Amino acid sequence: MAESLDVLFINPGDRKQIYQGLGDEFSAIEPPVFAGLFATFLRQKGHSAYIYDAPAMMASANEVARIASEDFEAKLIVIVVYGLQPSASTQNMTAAGDIARKIKDAGVSAKIMMTGTHPAALPAQTMNTEAVDFVVDMEGPVTIYKVLKALLEGHNDFSGIPSLWWRNGDQVVGPKIAEPLIGDLDTAMPGIAWDLLPMEKYRAHNWHCFDHIDERSPYASIHTSLGCPYKCSFCCINAPFGKSSYRTWSPDCVITEIDYLVNNYGIKNIKFVDEMFVLNKSHVLSLCDLLKNRDYNVNIWAYARVDTVQDEFLEHLKAAGVNWLCLGIESGSDYVRDGALKKYGNDDIIDVVRRIQNAGIYTIGNYIFGLPDDNISRMQETLDLSLELNCEFANFYSAMAYPGSGLYKMAVKDDAELPETWMDYSQHGYNTKPLSNKYCSAAEILEFRDQAFGKYFSHQPYLDMVNRKFGQEVVDHISRMVSVPLKRKLLEQGSVS
User: Fold this and answer.
1) Crossing angle for the helix pair 346-358 and 311-320, nearest 10 degrees?
2) Domain tally for the chain?
3) Kind of pairing, strands 3-11 and 72-81?
């Protein structure tokens, strides 16, 4: 018999589609943090919720539809479209759309809503192209609650609900006003609904556990803040918030959640999902102090910026168990970096990386090839800088015009050629198609990115450093990673766009 339920949250995604062979062993399997937060919000209001995590369960759209139709009798189904990192919502839209259509085809009577970064960036287009009844164009939880309340009361006019797009017969109706952002995160969403998640399924990124490569589970991702005060041209993180913004949970609230994870699930590996964790001095140091007073031996990674890392932070971060900091270095060219609104030089980058490493913290360098001012020689500068920095790990990306980003707005204005389907926005997928620029085709950028990945992870100074710090087992692990082929439709075609 189907379980009666107020809201069924669905986390969409297809790990094979997004990562190809890298998804089997090397990528993380992340808990759906926003679905978990939204479920907590509704539970705080006295409503019932369940989360079905499709990628963790390796479930097809057909299987998700079967579960939605046979296992639950929900008043509202909410497909929460986010990703494993802040800009990865769009790549999940293909899976999200398939799930919505399959649920409709199964004859499920519940209304279907989409929320998340991509739907918030393109709400009208999402309503017009997807098999959904509602789209939220802001952060979500309050709008979800108001829609659920209206459904429970039998209403069919949703025009008074802020930030909601809905169907009035054949007409798509947009909201008259925006729902304000939640002010008190501690009260509204004091942590993720972990009991609704298949905790045994999640695992950390491979590099996150280079110190213990065979112990990537149990694993959890949590927010300590929402939003980002910066306006990088390639980032869409603030689309659900309507503006550049920054709100935090209190350190006491965050440590309560970590206490719960450690004591109930034995969590050791933790990701702070915040777009920018190393930012607010009081927030960072207060949380570090609370962590230092616990004998948890946790292994945490978090995002930082080159211009936010202060020496005062580093000792406290290391003592608290923050063993990895991820830096958005983006480019080795001052000219390209300034165009992406990051105004610091290579000397600053090298200095910060060395200071982090000298504090005993590992670094991940994030690099982007193909930003608007990039050409082959400037991309080579980026690769050269990455090899000089020799971070303990590196992520190499192709520039993408993610909906909600400045690059997307520019691409639409210039009538640039964009990917044909949402899954083509996946960085590691077969159909990946970067944004071309006036100097390089999409194929040239993608080819450079893939070659840079192979060059970095087979570079002898890098492998020697890894062997020295982590041992031969991790060197062998990296060799297996590099040997996994990424097939690229764009390069097979020899396409020039």
Assistant:
1) 40
2) 2
3) parallel
Q: What is the dihedral of CA 279, 283, 287, 290, to 10 degrees?
A: 150
Indicate whether this model's pTM tops 0.85.
Answer: yes
DSSP symbol at 278: B
Residue 218: asked if its preceding bond is cis (omega within 30°), the reply is yes
- On the 0-12 / 13-18 / 19+ scale of CB atoms within 10 A, 200 is exposed
Measure CA 199 to chain center.
Answer: 18
433 within 8 A of 424, measured Cβ to Cβ = yes
Backbone angles phi, psi at 303, to 5 degrees: -90, 145
Q: Of 199, 192, 141, whose CA–CA distance to 36 is shortest?
A: 192
- Cβ-Cβ contacts under 8 Å for 226 (sequence gap 6 or more): 139, 185, 241, 245, 246, 247, 248, 274
Lowest mean pLDDT among 166-175, 241-250, 281-290: 241-250
Encoding tokens for residue 463?
């492998």
- Tens of pLDDT, residues 31-69: 999 999 999 999 999 999 999 999 999 999 999 999 999
CA–CA gap between residue 284 and residue 315 (Å, rounded): 12
- Check: CB of residue 143 under 8 Å from CB of residue 179: yes
Same domain, residue pair 242 and 117: no
Residue 428, domain member (yes or no): yes
Instruction: Residue count of the chain, please give it.
Output: 497
> Range of 293's domain?
204-492
Is 497 domain-assigned?
no
> Which amino acid, residue 144?
I
- Rounded to whole angstroms, how far apart are CA atoms 431 and 17? 9
CATH number at residue 474: 3.80.30.20
**CA separation for the pair 473, 141 (Å, rounded):** 44
Q: Which phi and psi (to 5°) does residue 355 adopt?
A: -65, -40
Nearest residue to 87 via CA among 295, 240, 252: 240
